[in-house]
Amino acid sequence: MDGSKFVSVKQRNTLQQNPSPANTAKYQPDSIYSIAYMVALVISIFIWFLAIRAPLWLDETGSYWHIYKGFSQIWPSNFQCPETPAYDYFLWLGTKMFGSSEVALRIPSLLAMLGAAYLLFLSARELFERDIAFIATIIFCLNPMIVFASVDARPYAFGMLAVNVAILCLLRMRHNQSAWLAALLGFSCAAIFYFHFLLGAVLPALLLGYFVIADVNRKGQWRQLGIALAVFAVAILPAIPSFLFTFHSSDSHVFEAAPTLLAFLGTFAPVKFVPTAVSIAITFYASLVLAFAFAVVLTHNRLSQIKIEKCQIAVCALLALVPVLLLFGVSKGTSIHIFATRHRIEAASGIALCWALLFTQVKNRTARLILCLVLVAAAAYQGYSNKGQHLYSWKDAIEAVEKNASVDNAPVLICSDFPESDYVPMPLDAAKESPYFAQLSYYKLSVPVVPLPRALNYEAKLVASDFYQFAVVNHQRFLAMGYAPSYATLDWLAGSAAGQYSVRVLGNYEGVLVLEFDPREQAAAR
After folding, report:
1. Taking the CA of residue 7 as centre, how many other CA atoms within 13 Å lie in the half-sphere pointing to its CB?
2. Please, what is the Cα angle at 325 between 206 and 372, to 5 degrees?
3. What is the four-CA torsion angle of 493, 497, 502, 505, rounded to 10 degrees?
4. How far apart are CA 34 and CA 23, in angstroms?
5. Does the pLDDT of residue 7 top 60, yes or no?
6. Which of 163, 218, 223, 411 has a CA positioned 20 to 30 A from the CA of residue 281?
7. Residue 144 phi, psi (nearest 5)
8. 3-state secondary structure string, 414-429?
9. Are 120 and 140 contacting, i.e. CB atoms less than 8 angstroms apart?
10. pLDDT band for position 378 (50/70/90)?
11. Does position 95 have pLDDT exceeding 90, yes or no?
């Protein structure tokens, strides 16, 4: 394939940034459009901040559990929860710089996602003109997966930073034979695994994308590929034990049902505000357009006038489709269901680039700007409608239990909210320090805690029955709490204790149900 067209894209971008007098009238950006796009981008990023003050949700308290004992205990804790071996050190460093409040714990993710957005803009500039690059970045920032991860004290923002470094390296290798660039590509691909193993689903897309890029300029392609693979192989070595542990225990991490086609198509919606039916219609239409254009380009290799479009479509489509198809296929075809929204985030950059590619077909600059502003306005409205909510939190439930139980030091039976707890013995003597009850590492309880699994299984009945017999003999008041998957356990407890205890609901706090068990003679006396 002739690479001259790709050089011309780069030259055109350069001309737009540094126009010569002869080309000033044609290429000089209109300041009004530039200002409008920058304002839209700022608003898009501002949407991230709407939920930054929300209480920590369950998995965020899991992140805090990894670091709350100090730097020296981070590495040992990774052997118990090994999916995110590198993020914990960044989070620990963030607590030393910003503190350990809810907002402070989310600042590292926010900074990482800002870096990821900037790298996405640079990547888009490798493919598109300035206006379209702004649109790609705005759609990236508005993506609900990005909005969530940007203020989530979890590793996904750092994972996206590594993904976008790899994408930028990949695109710049079209016109750069640097060995250092190839090494950075290999290192960034390995770094993805250090933030979350499932984000590695983007690697096949990057590899296939490399051969699309290499087809543009074959000179030195195998040397660069060899360097990238060598660096990747060395950099990934320390993560292999954790990866193998997670793989062998994969069944214990399943927490959702098999994905649906609706969920698959909804992944490609540009923003969250779009109603489901409209989202599916737009996504289906966009997929047809991209598939048709991709097929036309691949079957017309001799038409030089569409070679630029071939590279653009191929790279964008690979980055968007391959990770999602891989996760969907594994989740649909096996018992390992890994199609959670946050696990698909590695496709967000490719999705943004695909939508930007569609925007290139809108030739009128004003129309493009208006469409972009409509997306921003609607997403901002949706963000404000959520009233700063993130995900459900145990904070209010734990505070209510602490206030009620601390009066007489009443013990509390707590159902773990982590699916892994169904496969291990309960830590009866150290529940408050267990990763399966990580919420207690951040939101404290001073009263005794009796740990139960997430599901109503043999372990749950055994532990609860032993405690119940002790409580009956001692006429002891106690409480029980659990999230929705554990309601069956709470119902079983209430039914088992109905003869000896008066059971009442203290409250339901964002889905965390709290029950009080009061001995009948004491309840009657009151």
Report:
1. 7
2. 75
3. 0
4. 18
5. no
6. 163
7. -60, -30
8. EECCCHHHHHCCCCCC
9. yes
10. confident
11. yes
Contact at 8 Å (CB) between 493 and 450? no
Nearest to 243 by CA among 88, 87, 84, 89: 84
In angstroms, how far is CA 234 from the centroid of its own chain?
26
Q: Which residue has tokens 């003999």?
A: 473
Q: Distance from CA of residue 291 to its chain's centroid?
A: 27
For residue 514, give the amino acid letter.
V
Token pair of 127, please? Answer: 């493919």
- Phi and psi at residue 70, to the nearest 5°: 115, 170
Q: Which two tokens stand for residue 213?
A: 């890029």
Enumerate the β-bridge partners of residue 482: 513
Instruction: Identify the burial level of 394 via C-beta atoms within 10 angstroms of its C-beta, where 0-12 means exposed, 13-18 middle and 19 or more buried.
Output: buried
Dihedral-angle region of residue 161 (phi above 0 means left; psi in -120 to 50 means alpha; beta otherwise): alpha
Average pLDDT over all residues of the chain: 82
Please give the C-alpha separations between residue 224 and each of 178, 182, 202, 228, 384, in angstroms, as whole numbers: 8, 5, 19, 6, 47
Measured distance CA(438)–CA(434) in Å, rounded? 6
Q: Report the half-sphere exposure of 191 (CA within 13 A, side-chain side).
A: 20
Supply the pTM of this predicted model: 0.84
pLDDT tens figures, 434-484: 999 999 999 999 999 999 999 999 999 999 999 999 999 888 999 999 999
Residue at token pair 């496709």: 347
Question: For the purposes of burial, counting CB atoms within 10 Å of the CB of 447, is it exposed (0-12), middle (13-18) or buried (19 or more)?
Answer: middle
Phi first, then psi, for residue 388 (nearest 5°) are 70, 20
What distance in Å separates the CA atoms of residue 85 and residue 114, rounded to the nearest whole number?
22
Percent of the chain with pLDDT over 70: 79
Q: Is residue 176 within 8 Å of 220, Cβ to Cβ?
A: no
C-alpha to C-alpha distance for 64 and 67, rounded to whole angstroms: 5
The token pair that represents 326 in the structure block: 């891989």
The pLDDT tens digits for 380-415 are 887 777 777 888 999 999 999 999 999 999 999 999
156 contact partners, CB below 8 Å, separation of at least 6: 109, 149, 195, 196, 199, 342, 345
d(CA 271, CA 43): 14
Write the CB contacts of 203 (distance below 8 Å, at least 6 apart in sequence). 189, 192
d(CA 381, CA 134): 21
Tell me the domains of the chain and their CATH numbers.
Answer: 4-17+31-49+62-385 (no CATH), 395-525 (3.40.50)
> Comparing C-alpha atoms, which of 184, 211, 203, 183 is closest to residue 243?
203
HSE-CB for 285 with a 13 A CA cutoff = 8
Strand partners, 415: 452
